Amino acid sequence: MKLGLVTYADTSVYGGVFDEEFSEASRSFFNLAGGGRFRLLVSDVLRREIERAPDHVRGFFDQQLHLMTFVAFTREVMALRDAYLKAGILGVKSADDAAHVASAVVGGADLIVSWNFRHIVHIDKARMYNAVNQLHGYRAVEIRSPAEVIEYEDEDV
Q1: Is the dihedral of CA 46, 52, 53, 59 positive or negative?
Q2: In this structure, are residues 105 and 133 in contact, taking their beta carbons and an 8 Å threshold?
Q3: Is the CATH number 3.40.50.800 carried by domain 5-149?
Q4: pTM
Q5: What span, in angstroms and rounded, lies between the C-alpha atoms of 83 and 69?
Q6: pLDDT tens for residues 28-53?
Q7: Chain centroid to CA 128: how far?
Q8: Which residues are 40's β-sheet partners?
Q9: Best CA proximity match to 142, nearest among 111, 98, 103
């Protein structure tokens, strides 16, 4: 049996389940995770944000707990987050977004999924994150939206 991709889904994906614009792809992503396509990696940063989310988002998150592996907010994560900030990828006000990426990378994620197109899922940002990762001895990580990683029915095949 092939193991699923280690995947870090940030808070926007959990909330996206309940957002009309993002619901279909977010739900499909979590259905695939439930089927083993993705192995969910979750950070302390994500858990803190989920604690402040509406009840229905917290409840959905709790339903996924059996699929999750947790990565702690360690000095290693903080150092990589700070390296992203020092490189100017994000400003200090967006340090939590940098912490999401750092947690995923330190935790060994193959993939990060997010609906945050400004700070995470952006071609220039992804390249910069991965350049800093390489400088600090980490491997590159794919950064995509859930819509880019779910399966679609292809009527032409």
Answers
A1: positive
A2: yes
A3: no
A4: 0.93
A5: 24
A6: 999 999 999 999 999 999 999 999 99
A7: 16
A8: 7, 68
A9: 111
